[in-house]
Structures are given as structure tokens and as C-alpha cells.
Amino acid sequence: MTSPYPGTYRGILSDRKITEARENGDLYIAPFDRRQLQPTGYNLTPTRFFYSTTKKKFLPVIENSEEVYVIVDKNDTVLVRTRESVAVSSSLSGAFYSKVKVVSEGFGHVSTTLDPNWEGQLLISLNNPTNKRLKFSIEKKVYGETIYNSFVTLEFTGLDSFPLDRSDNPPGRLDILSSTIEKNISTFKRKQVDELRQLLKDLHECEDQTIESFIINHFTPEEEQAREEIYAIRDNQQFYETWNTFLEQKKRKYLRQIQEDFNRNALKSIEIINTYIDKKQKYMPVRVKFLSFCIKNRYHLFGILISVILGLCTFFSDELIAKLSVLENLDILHIASLTCMGYIILPILKDLKDIFFDMK
């Protein structure tokens, strides 16, 4: 995605210039949410891809009716794949900065940069430098609407000349997904590994789609003929200059269609990533799922423990009850204790069923 007009943007881009760059086809952000656009940058949100560099595996994603989150262990660093796919021309670069609300919760942030001509989803490192486990919220339900937790701001900067080299960093680190396909899979779920391989294959196809390929997909027969003539040029420098100028013209011609293609491809990538993580978690051994269940329902389990203790006191500690002068209310205490236990236990029975009986 090379622009023949470097120097169009100067310094850090404001929200006005970010909008202008998107309208000119020098910057693509998808899915784009106007609420995430900041005066000097754009806020990025996470998928469910949270990979622990210490344990070499994905963090369990915990979900309830109000929130989706993960627990990051102390002194651990996780790689987080963004929902947003970003593409920039050769006239733009970028840098990532932590959001104050994330740092104030105890998280650190390993800074990185966005190279010119970058295309694809982003992988951001996030570390927990504290001596305690920290909760990271991925998304929340607010009045029926899903609100994604932005955790880093991407700041764009204009360049005054072409970069000499292109970035060779692969987007999204699909090698991590490849290395995890057969790890931590329940014995009962071995047959489902092919599903994970197919998802990874689909994701590779998404990441093979570039702005250039989107442009070429819209070529007319005449434009295809012109492309063949350009490819026949033997001099490399002349070829690249002619091809880049030709591409720039066609990019502006098909800009709306390219933006739609880029957005569809980004949404498909998000769906594939989240589906992969969900299936991977569903196929985990029972012991791992049970640990996730305990974390998710820790308050309910604590309540059950308290109820059991109270129940034992009422059944076996007549002397204590007598001292409290409530011996005559023993039956009432029994009923109250059992009622509390039932109230606490019933909401988590479904989760237990999913863990121990979901063997399809």
C-alpha cells in the first residue's frame, strides 16, 4: 500500500487528520467506532486472544451475564490481539501508548511502534508487574449493549519521505495459534482438533488479503490487461514506479469498495479469533475448566462455604446455640441455612453441567 505522495501529513495526526487520511485511503481502521477516536489517536480494543508468555498458553476467558474477562497472573506478560485491523500507507507510522485507566489498575505496558505500510490486526504486549493476580475486562454489557474495553491508544505520525525498507513483521502472530492447536485438549475432544485447524486456515486466508489484493479484485478486463503490460516491464525501478502509480489511481477509483472489503475481512478475522479461543477453551481438560469455574464463581463458592459452616454450627453445636438463647429457633436456622445454600448453589449448576457433562 504505497502512496506516491509522501509528506501529505505532518507530525502527529489529530482526529481531523485521521478522518482525512481515512477518506483519502491512506489509513484504514476496521471495525471503526467513532467513540474510540481521540483528539490525537485511536483507542484499540481486545479480542479474546490473551496468550501468556510465561505459561505458553491462552488465558481462560471467564464470562457471565454482565462481563467477559481474564485473570492475569502476577509477574506475567500476555500478548493481546486487537479487534481492530489497521492499514497505513508509506506516508504514515504510529506508536502505542497505555491508557491511564489500565495502568491505574496495576498493569504495565510494553511500548511498540507501527511501521509504514503495515496491514492487519495488531498484537500488543501487556504485563502484570505486581505481586497479585489482576483482572482484565474484555467487554461489558451496559443496558443490553456490548462495550469493549479499550486498553491502548494508537497515535499516527506523518512521514516527510519514503522509508527505505518495508516491515517484515507478520500481523497477528499466527504461529502462536499454530503452536497451541493440540495443547491442553481433552481426551474426549481429540476429534475436534480438525475444527481448530480449519479456523486457523480461514484466518490465514483473511490475513493474506491486502489492500493491493482488494484493488486487484475490482479490476475490469481492461485494467487486467494494463496490469499484464506493467508486469512485462523488465527494469525493476521503472516497474515499481509504474505499478505504484497505477495502483494509487485505482485505489482512489475503488476506495469505497476497498474500505468495505477491508471492514468485512476485519470482522471475519475477529469472529474467527474469538471462535478459536472459545472452542479451544471448550475442548480443555476437565481440571482446567474446573479451575476456571472456581475463579468465575469464587464468591458463590465462598458463600457456600459460609452456609455449610453455619449449618454445621446449627446441627452440632447445641451448647453454642443455647448460649445464644436461640435454641427454640433451631428449625428456623436449619431452614434459613438450607435456603441460603440453595439460593447460592442453583445459579452455578448450569456451569457445573457444562464442565462435567458436555462431552459431545
List keywords for this structure.
360 residues; alpha+beta; 45% helix; 6-stranded antiparallel β-sheet
Written overview of the protein:
By secondary structure, this protein is of the alpha+beta class. It has helices at 15-24, 100-104, 174-180, 193-208, 211-217, 221-231, 236-253, 255-282, 286-296, 298-316, 318-323, 330-345, 349-357, and strands at 11-12, 27-30, 37-38, 41-44, 46-52, 57-58, 62-63, 67-72, 77-88, 92-98, 108-109, 113-114, 119-127, 134-142, 145-148, 152-158. The strands form 3 sheets. Strands 1, 3, 4, 10, 12 and 16 form a 6-stranded antiparallel beta sheet that branches. Helix 9 (286-296) packs antiparallel against helix 13. The protein is elongated. The protein starts with 10 loop residues before the first strand and ends with a helix. Residues 353-360 have low confidence and may be disordered.
Helix content: 40-55%
What is the H/E order? EHEEEEEEEEEHEEEEEEHHHHHHHHHHH
Shape: elongated
Count every beta strand, where a strand is a DSSP E run of 2 or more residues.
16
Number of helical segments with 4 or more residues? 13
Mean pLDDT across all residues, rounded?
80
| Quaternary class | single chain
| Class derived from helix and strand content | alpha+beta
Summarize the structure in short.
The chain is built from 13 helices and 16 strands. By secondary structure, it is of the alpha+beta class. The strands form three sheets. Strands 1, 3, 4, 10, 12 and 16 form a six-stranded antiparallel β-sheet that branches. Strands 2, 5, 6, 9, 11 and 13 form a six-stranded antiparallel β-sheet that branches.
